[in-house]
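DM from R.C. (forwarded with permission)

"hey, sorry to bug you on a friday — could you get me a structure for this? deadline for the figure draft is monday and I only need the backbone to look sensible"
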Amino acid sequence: MVRAMLTVSDVDLYYGAAQALRGVSLTAKPGAITCVLGRNGVGKTSLLRAIVGQQPIRAGQIALDGDDLGRSAPYARARKGIGFVPQGREIFPLLTVKENLQTGFAPLKPADRSIPEHVFELFPVLADMLGRRGGDLSGGQQQQLAIGRALVTRPRLLVLDEPTEGIQPSIIKDIGRAIRYLRDQSGLAILLVEQYLDFCRELADQVYIMDRGEIVFDGPAEGLDDPAVRKHLTV
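My reply, with the result:
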């Protein structure tokens, strides 16, 4: 049995008095794509913030490869192998594509500070635009840049927050192919938060659905065709 790369156990998270996560538990395994689905405001992004260390949890445990992350900071989690692609991409618009990719060097030892070739193999447009400013790229190209920057950190767990948001269909297909390649060829554990149901159905090995801060479904992607499951995704 494959050991989970990420284990989230009974996590509660609050913003002041408001509870955003209620006893959330999930796992993400190496060589598998785990997708978290749900309507807006159900806690998906809060879950990712907890995993990457941007928001402290009130109760429960988050572990990477069996190592309890405790209250460690985001940069410490990046050093341990968590790569994060945030919602909205958050690239640096005034830096060049090359400089944006090089910001991924921060958690690496000096000997490892290079851009892996597979970044350009997955996203050839980045190689063609190394000298262009990040802000001059289209939304889809910026999303590819954000994924490439996360890959520069040599992650063991890749966390993506709605990578298809606002992206044209052709680039959604490119991103899907890249995520599938990373799962199959590098054995990465991939945790993907999405609202685009078809994207998850095509890619996911395991699906979790959230509603009101809780996990209400956990199973294979085929389960998304069950009307009782889909009701948690309709507005």
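R.C.: lifesaver. The two ends are 37 Å apart (CA to CA).
me: no worries. The chain has one domain: 6-230.
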